[in-house]
Amino acid sequence: MTTYKGINGFAVQSVSSDPSPLDEGQVWYNNASYAFKLAGLNTAAWASGGNLTTARTALAASTAGTQTANIVFGGDSGSPTGATESYNGTSWSPAPSMNTARSYLGGAGTQTAALSFGGTTAQSATEKFNGSTWTNNPTGLNVARRYIAGCGTQTSGFAVGGNPGNPPTSAVEAFNGSTWTNLTNIPTARSLSAAFGVSTAAVVISNVTPPAQSWNGSTWTNLPNMNTARSGLAAAGTQTAGLAFGGIPNRNITELWNGTVWSTQPTMATGRHYLGGCGTQTSALAAGGVASTGNSAATEEWTGAGVATKTITTS
Amino acid sequence: MAYKYCVAECWGKGFITHDDASKYQVSGFPGNVWQIPANNQDANLWVNKVAGVWKTKEEAQAIVDAIIAQAQAAWDALPDEQKQQPFNRQRPTAIVLE
User: Fold this and answer.
1) ipTM higher than 0.95?
2) Residue B1 and residue A245: Cα distance in Å, rounded?
């Protein structure tokens, strides 16, 4: 009889925790969960997450947060709100509200160190969240604006474009934890964009021409066009491994950026725009937004293609 | 591609799992209408899992139409200044199920 040891030259290992990193085809017995497990190939797909407590559009997220630990804040649930909700990978729970209610704002940071800036109507207000409370930053954006794109962290935030009251602006600013500094303008003014990456290596996307432009900390470069250029979308990831999802109007489209080209990926179940997003190219989160008939509470969790742990069952 | 329809309320986590979405596409529409591929055993099992109520295409379309009509009426009732705000939500448009 063919045995695992006969094929591989060694027996299935009994371990107390799942190995990391995984090698495709690897098999082990987890003696803590009493289960045989396999490192198998995972198909990219969106799955349902916990619904937001309050359906809303034009919200922001802690863009550097993870799929299992992040916050969303602000937005519009009939009127601009400062409401904040915290996600644990399963459900959302209320967190303290921002001091200034607003929608179409920018967000950055993590669940315990988040940053909010700008918003309706053309505010410069900047607030910092420490996991418990929001605090007004003494100084705000140099260019007050709404429909702004943001990414990065609380101590290295990045704000691009937006609209100070028509036309859209090309202003770009970086936040060092205390103050905003003007950077080189993006060549194409734009609003309702999405940004992903960090303040020294980011990509900004929307439906202008060209749709995608890349920032290396000092200069901007045009990138290949997305397959479906659109605004009002969300994004996650890094400058060389990004994910863009949703967009106007009520799009369920997902596109993956590998640093060279865009590729179309499986769609979300709920098409929407003005949504919040965070995470990485292989583990992202989409929350809220506006769907075809109104504000959405839907949350969806993206898992990219790759090697993942699977439990072996006998059924 | 042929589709089937059901009505089910999305309760959140676990409604559509990664395993579900890896096997077939589930698309949501107004009125808690969900579209799944026809002749797909896994998708049929998903409808059972979420306690979905099967609808014919015509029934599903009627549900979607009614919700869209409500949303259009609500939009029409907005003051003109709100309708004309740039980037404000547009009047909901009809959706035709495939």
Assistant:
1) no
2) 24
